[in-house]
C-alpha cells in the first residue's frame, strides 16, 4: 500500500529512492567500496570486555556513560570497543564486527575516514578550541543553510539534546506560548520537558518518566501517538491558542525504525499553520541521512525549525538548530532569547562536518545507501520469514529497522508488540557471528558509504544462521 507525502510516493514502512543525483558510478572512488580484509575468524570471547566492564561499574553509573551501551535489554556481556575503520569495528578482545550502529548515525561515510582524519590533524595544529569565532563556522553554516530547506540561519551547539533544548526555548519565545506537543516514543534528548513517554534508552530500559524531573517541567508537554492525526486535532481543539510548537522525528529512530503513515506529515504541517504553531523537525538522526536535505527534502515538507546533530559533526560532538530568519533573530545576541556554549562551533567539529558533507554531496551517494540498505533489510526479512519468525521492517536511504512482530508498526504501542526476548537472542547470535546491531529493539540501524556488498552478504548469511538457531 502506498501513499503520497509531499508529492512523493512512499510505501508503508518500505520507502522509495530519492532522485538527488546520478546513478552510483562504477568509477566512484575505492574509498567507498573498499572492503576490509577479514582474517580467519577467531573463537568468540569477551573476557577482556568483561574485566573492563566490571571495573567500569565501580567508576561510572552502570559502568557506562550512556545507558543503552550496558546491554540491559539484550542481556549478556557488553563489548568494549578498541578501534573502528570503515564499516568495521574491533573490541578489546580482538573480535571484529560489521557495524550497523555507526556511533548512532554520524559515521555515514564510514568510521575514521582518511580524509577527515587528515583534515582534523591539520586543524589541530592551530588548536582544539578557541571560545571565539572561527572561519570554519561560516563554512559549515553556509553548507547547512544551502542544503536544508527550512534553515535560513543556524546556531551550532554541542549535542542533539542541547539543540532540542534551544529550539524549544526559541519556539516559546517566538510564539509567546508555552505548551508543546511531542509524540510517544520519540526521543529529543534528556532535557526535562522531553522526558515524557520518551523513546531511545528510556524505552529500552522500560523506565517511567524520570525521577528528578519536576512536575512543572513537563506540565506544558502534551503527547499523542505517532501517526495519529486525530489525536493531534483533539489536542488543538482542547488547547486553542496555547500550543507553541509540535516537535517530532519525521522518521522515528528511537522506537526502532517507524516511517510516517500516509498523509501524516502533510496534516501536521497544515494544522500547525492554521493555528499559528511552529513545526519543529528533530532531524538529529535523519538530517543528511535520508537525503542531503534531510527528511524535509525527502518528503517535501518544510518545517519552521529544525534540529541537527550527528552527521554534521562527522563523528565529533555537535548539534545545531535553525529555521526561518525572523525566528532565529530572536536568539541572543541578535535577540532576547538567551543560549550560549563555550565549545559551540569548535574548529574540530566544524572541520569534520565540512569534510563529511562534502563527501555526501558527491553524485551517487544516496543512491548507493539506498541500494545497499534495501538489499540488507530485504535479506534479513526474507531470512526471518523463511525460518518461521514473525518479522517486519523497512528502510529509507541509509536508515533501517525491523521488529519481531507481524506488524505493521505505526507507533510506539505497535513497536512494543515486538518479541524483545527474541530480539535479544538474535542480537547475541549476530554478535557471535561478527555483526553489531544496536543493543536495543527500540533503536534504528544505519548503513554507510563504507559498507560493501560483501558486508551485506555476510550479514544476511549470518542472519540466516542465527534465525535457524533462535
UniProtKB/TrEMBL annotation:
Question: Which pathway, metabolic or otherwise, does it act in?
Answer: Porphyrin-containing compound metabolism; protoporphyrin-IX biosynthesis; 5-aminolevulinate from L-glutamyl-tRNA(Glu): step 2/2; Porphyrin-containing compound metabolism; chlorophyll biosynthesis
Keyword annotations for this protein, in alphabetical order, are: Isomerase, Porphyrin biosynthesis, Pyridoxal phosphate
Top-rank EC class of the record's enzyme: isomerase
Q: Which GO terms describe its biological process?
A: chlorophyll biosynthetic process; protoporphyrinogen IX biosynthetic process
* Record GO terms (molecular function): glutamate-1-semialdehyde 2,1-aminomutase activity; pyridoxal phosphate binding; transaminase activity
The answer on whether this UniProt entry bears the keyword Isomerase reads yes
Q: Which Pfam families does this chain map to?
A: Aminotran_3
Report the GO terms under cellular component: chloroplast
* Catalyzed reactions: (S)-4-amino-5-oxopentanoate = 5-aminolevulinate
Cofactor(s) demanded: pyridoxal 5'-phosphate
Q: Describe, as the record does, how this protein assembles with itself and its partners.
A: Homodimer.
What is the protein's given name?
Answer: glutamate-1-semialdehyde 2,1-aminomutase
Amino acid at each position: 500500500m502506498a501513499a503520497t507525502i509531499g508529492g512523493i510516493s512512499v510505501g508503508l514502512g518500505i520507502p522509495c529512492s530519492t532522485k538527488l543525483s546520478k546513478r552510483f558510478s562504477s568509477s566512484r572512488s575505492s574509498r567507498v567500496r573498499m572492503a576490509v580484509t577479514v582474517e580467519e575468524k577467531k573463537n568468540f570471547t569477551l573476557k577482556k570486555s568483561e574485566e573492563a566492564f566490571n571495573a567500569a561499574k565501580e567508576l561510572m553509573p552502570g559502568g557506562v556513560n550512556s545507558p543503552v551501551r550496558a546491554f540491559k535489554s539484550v542481556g549478556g556481556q557488553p563489548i568494549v570497543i578498541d578501534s573502528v575503520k570503515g564499516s568495521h569495528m574491533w573490541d578489546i578482545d580482538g573480535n571484529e564486527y560489521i557495524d550497523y550502529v555507526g556511533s548512532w548515525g554520524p559515521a555515514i561515510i564510514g568510521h575514521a575516514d582518511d580524509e577527515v582524519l587528515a583534515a582534523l590533524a591539520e586543524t589541530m595544529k592551530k588548536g582544539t578550541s578557541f571560545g571565539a569565532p572561527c572561519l570554519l563556522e561560516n563554512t559549515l553554516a553556509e553548507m547547512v543553510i544551502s542544503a536544508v530547506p527550512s534553515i535560513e540561519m543556524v546556531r551550532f551547539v554541542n549535542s542533539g539534546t542541547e539543540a532540542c533544548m534551544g529550539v524549544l526555548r526559541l519556539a516559546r519565545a517566538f510564539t509567546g506560548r508555552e505548551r508543546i506537543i511531542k509524540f510517544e516514543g520519540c526521543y529529543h534528548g534528556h532535557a526535562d520537558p522531553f522526558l515524557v513517554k520518551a523513546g531511545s534508552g528510556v524505552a529500552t530500559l522500560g523506565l517511567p518518566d524520570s525521577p528528578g524531573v519536576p512536575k512543572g517541567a513537563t506540565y506544558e508537554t502534551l503527547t499523542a501517538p505517532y501517526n495519529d492525526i486525530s489525536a493531534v486535532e483533539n489536542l488543538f481543539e482542547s488547547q486553542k491558542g496555547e500550543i507553541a510548537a509540535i516537535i517530532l522525528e519525521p522518521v522515528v529512530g528511537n522506537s526502532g525504525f517507524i516511517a510516517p503513515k500516509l498523509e501524516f506529515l502533510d496534516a501536521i504541517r497544515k494544522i500547525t499553520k492554521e493555528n499559528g504553531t511552529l513545526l519543529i523537525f528533530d532531524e538529529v538522526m535523519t538530517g543528511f541521512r535520508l537525503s542531503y536535505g534531510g527528511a524535509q527534502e525527502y518528503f517535501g515538507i518544510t518545517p519552521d525549525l529544525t534540529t541537527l546533530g550527528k552527521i554534521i559533526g562527522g563523528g565529533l560532538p555537535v548539534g545545531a538548530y535553525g529555521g526561518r530568519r525572523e525566528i532565529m533573530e530572536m536568539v541572543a545576541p541578535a535577540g532576547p532569547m538567551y543560549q550560549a556554549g563555550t565549545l559551540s562551533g569548535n574548529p574540530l567539529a566544524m572541520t569534520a562536518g565540512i569534510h563529511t558533507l562534502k563527501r555526501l554531496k558527491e553524485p551517487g551517494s544516496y543512491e548507493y545507501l539506498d541500494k545497499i540498505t534495501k538489499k540488507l533489510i530485504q535479506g534479513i526479512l526474507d531470512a526471518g520469514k523463511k525460518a518461521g519468525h514473525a518479522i517486519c521492517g523497512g528502510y529509507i536511504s541509509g536508515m533501517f529497522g525491523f521488529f519481531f512482530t507481524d506488524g505493521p508498526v505505526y507507533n510506539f504501542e505497535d513497536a512494543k508488540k515486538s518479541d524483545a526476548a527474541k530480539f535479544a537472542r538474535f542480537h547475541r547470535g549476530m554478535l557471535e557471528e561478527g555483526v553489531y546491531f544496536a543493543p536495543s529493539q527500540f533503536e534504528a540501524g544505519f548503513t554507510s558509504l563504507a559498507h560493501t556488498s560483501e558486508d551485506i552478504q555476510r550479514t544476511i548469511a549470518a542472519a540466516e544462521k542465527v534465525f535457524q538457531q533462535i
